[in-house]
Amino acid sequence: MDYLPIFADLKHRPVLVVGGGEVAARKISLLLSAGADVYVVAQSLADEVNQLHQKQSIHWLAKVFDVTQLDDIFLVIAATNNSTLNAQVFQAANQRRRLVNVVDDPARCSFIFPSIVDRSPLVVAVSSAGKAPVLARLLREKLEALLPASLGTVAEIAGNWRDRVKQRLSTLSERRRFWERIFNGRFAALVAANRIDDAQAELEFQLSQNQGQTGDVTLVGAGPGDAGLLTLRGLQAIQQADVVLHDSLVTDEILALVRRDAEQICVGKRAGAHSVAQEETNQLLVKLALEGKRVVRLKGGDPFIFGRAVKS
What we know:
single chain, alpha/beta, Rossmann fold, Helicase, Ruva Protein, domain 3, 4 domains, 4-stranded parallel sheet, 12 helices, 11 strands, about 40% helix, about 15% strand, globular
């Protein structure tokens, strides 16, 4: 990754925007939607920016940029048509270890703005690391059509129920399975139909019906190593697993698809390393499943060729 995707809490935090034109206006609008306190340095303000200033939604700090303006700033954005000034802002921000974005200049960005699908509090961000912004925008448009508007309400209700679910279900694994069942079930359909009271009742019912979880074992073939060749069901099993037992031949590309908090155990054979006997692997699979865990045995290639699946 060229950039680490993170979400920053900007509520009541000071952000400096150098520039007052149309490009700056778009950035300012986005910052205000995140609750930032926006300070602007610009010789003049475009109509849209000036209206925000008149409404006291932003602060027109100065007409000329000075490095001391960065002293109490959280983020910095340079959005002028003066490349020399933009470079000066970038250098000054870097020296003070402030995150800075120079619009349309990826080489002078310590953070970048992604394309955003906003279903607040659910937000999806898409970025090409500044290399293909049009491609990122096209992908965002596809996601906009794919993700229903009701997802925000689904997330909001789920957030309100988190403490209650945590009190009823003591383990992380139990809670994760509960929410997977809820989000794939009747609850989401009721929210989409704007039947909020019925959706709340469905949550209460499902929580009261929740029983101790049972474990299972799924055998998944990793194929020749290309993650794109995994079946959809295989990918789902990998991403839902609590524990993944894998061969040494399974590629890092495929192992990267395993959920971050899942346990990964290598049980494959490798020259010069300890070899795990098949019987030992089988016993471990059963043990983990009896503990109520979702277990995936991830084997390189096709596990049904030469009867390898029978052994597992």
